[in-house]
Every structure is written in C-alpha cells, then in structure tokens.
Design brief:
Number of helices: 11
CATH topology of the largest domain: Tetracycline Repressor, domain 2
Shape: globular
Largest sheet: 2 strands, antiparallel
Order of helices and strands: HHHHHHHHHEEHH
Number of strands: 2
Strand content: under 5%
Number of domains: 2
Distance between the termini: 60 Å
Strand order of the largest sheet: 1-2
Structural class: mainly alpha
CATH class of the largest domain: Mainly Alpha
CATH superfamily of the largest domain: Tetracycline Repressor, domain 2
Length: 251
C-alpha cells in the first residue's frame, strides 16, 4: 500500500484577501518612492492612493517601520533576482564570465531602479532601524551568496584560508569568522576580507553611477565598469595560492 500524501492546506479566503491587500500597499509605496524618493514616503499618501484610511492601512502594517522593512526586503529580493537571472543566463560560461554577469546584473538593476536602490543604500531614513536578523538581513545574505559563489568558484577552503590579505588583526579575524558560510564550513577570514573588499569596490562604482556622480563619463560608464570588474577579479584571484601551503609539489 502507498502511504497517503499529506493534504495541502490552502490559505483561507481571509488570508488570500490579506495577501492581496498587503501586496497592493507595497506596490503603492513603491510607486510613491519611484515618484518622490524614499525620504518622501508617507503612509497617509499611500493610503490615499489606494482609497483607504490610514487606520485601515495600519491593519496591515502597524507603523511606518513595518512598511519600510517590507519595502527594503522586497528591494533586496528583486536585486538578488536580477543578479541571479544574470548569472543563470551565463550558466555555461566560465566562472569569471559568471562573476562579470553578476556585477552587470547588479549595476543594471541599480541604474534602472535608482530610487529603490537609494532606499537600500542612500542616506538612512530618519528614525528607521531594520530589525536584527529580520527579513532585510536574510534578503541581503541571499544576494551576497551569489557573489561569494562566483568569486571563489573552484577554490578549496584550504586555498582560501591561505589567501594573501596582509596581516589581519586577531579581533578582525574573530569577527569575520562566522559571517560568510562556505559550503558546509565557514568562509575563512582571509577570504571574507577579500570578498568584502571586492564587494565594496563593485558597489562603490555602482553608487557613483546610479547617483549621478560619474555622468561626465557619459555612455562609456558601462565600459569603465566592466574593465574595473575584470581587474578586480584578477586581483582577488592573484591573492589566492594555486596550492595551499604545505602541498607537495607535483613531480
């Protein structure tokens, strides 16, 4: 006899209606951010756009911070989706090409959705503090895992542990130790330092372009970015030994 499969519990009508209303509120808030920028976000204006009262909106989001958290988490997820899609489109390419595709996906989303990118990385909203280990943190980690995988593809944990990052202080090593998972183990502090430096370089160039600070380069911004990303990856890989210390030389 075959074991009976557990019945799938479908959401109730009330739950489905709540999910639809929540999605409409988030969509309206995103439209307001796209129109007026993240610092102009107003629950009253969002409610007005939807033809509901602020009190009615509070039924779904008890305060502004709850709505901002939903918006930030969704922006991170959409950015991660864009990066993942870019990598998937280059799935048959070498790791270096996939990394470049990931950076280009990141850049393309940022310059296309400047206001939402500003919500993530612009001046912090006054009086807002993201919940510790909440949905915004989880969404950000999802994206970082894509870059971690492509930057270090093909290297062993022993090689990454021997990466040349000069001398990291004991305090910094201890802080970096648990931050980035690598397979079944933890990404070694030396590799974590390389990853953070690489991400900062890549992200900094995107911020400069998205916020208009490199507009003087005009249509050549993409070419400059791709050149910098190729050099960045080569520098990271140059710091990782082809064989970990103590490995016998090939005969």
């Amino acid at each position: 006899m075959f074991a009976e499969e557990p019945a799938t519990v479908l959401p109730s009508l009330r739950q489905r209606r709540r999910a639809v209303a929540t999605r409409e509120i988030v969509d309206a808030a995103e439209r307001q951010i796209a129109r007026d920028g993240p610092h102009a976000l107003s629950l009253r204006a969002v409610a007005r756009d939807l033809g509901m009262t602020v009190q009615g909106l509070y039924h779904y989001f008890p305060n502004r911070d709850a709505l901002v958290t939903a918006l930030v988490a969704k922006a991170y997820d959409d950015l991660a989706d864009a990066v993942t899609a870019a990598v998937d489109a280059a799935a048959d390419e070498p790791a270096a090409r996939r990394f470049l595709a990931a950076t280009e996906g990141y850049r393309r989303w940022a310059v296309t959705h400047v206001e939402r990118f500003q919500l993530l990385y612009g001046a912090p909203l006054r009086h807002y503090e993201a919940p510790a280990e909440g949905p915004t943190t989880q969404a950000m980690r999802r994206m970082s895992m894509v870059f971690q995988r492509e930057v270090f593809d093909g290297f062993t944990t022993e090689q990454l542990a021997a990466a040349d990052t000069r001398a990291l202080s004991p305090a910094l090593q201890a802080h970096l130790e648990p931050l980035f998972p690598h397979g079944l183990e933890t990404l070694p502090p030396s590799a974590a330092a390389l990853l953070l430096g690489a991400w900062g370089h890549m992200h900094g160039m995107v911020v400069l372009e998205a916020f208009g600070h490199t507009s003087f380069i005009g249509e050549h911004q993409g070419e400059i970015f791709r050149m910098a990303m190729r050099d960045l990856l080569e520098d990271v890989h140059r710091r990782i030994p082809t064989q970990p210390p103590g490995t016998p030389a090939a005969p």
